[in-house]
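Pasting two entries for a bug report.
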Amino acid sequence: GKIVTSVVNDLLMPPLGLLIRRVDFKELFFNLSGTSYATLNDAKAAGAPTLNYGLFVNTIIEFLLIALALFLIVRTVNRWRQQPSPATQECPFCRMSIPLAARRCPHCTSEFKSAVSAAT
């Protein structure tokens, strides 16, 4: 929460603000009333309705950072998991998927020694 907010507000947004020639994204807003205000705080103090798209951009960037961090964690954990052994094998004659213990292919009716029967 607070760490991500600090990263967004203190590290990411100032360089982005310089690129669009505005220093503080929090001050970006649309005033819905007929009067003009210099800052968002002035508009809020006057009770003017505003659309605070700068705060929305900050929130979206925070969300994307959290989503990226969770994605990287889940991907790393999934790499540590061992893949399950296959429960099927491929018929050497018709190339259809059949159970591992099968001795005859149900698709082409070919007889063969399966990996399980060959191991016993």
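Entry 2 (this is the one that rendered wrong in the viewer):
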Amino acid sequence: MKIFIFYSTSIFVIVFVVLILMVAYKVLIKKETPSNYYTPFDHIAGQATNEFQEENKEYEREEQNDEGNDIDKNI
């Protein structure tokens, strides 16, 4: 059982070291930034520019439609 834990942790560490070395190679040697792919967290955190801009445009349209309408002002 100890050997299994040793090998599994070793593989885990090796995978992360390889990933870090790949990023370091791209940044330092090739002088290019690694691409960051879309993650669902981008949408939750408001980093998706398309969605944010669409919501702003919709809000502006609603404000323009409500400017002359004072029917429900006292409600």
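Dev reply: Rendering is fixed now. As a check, the viewer should reflect this: The CA atoms of residues 41 and 47 lie 8 Å apart.
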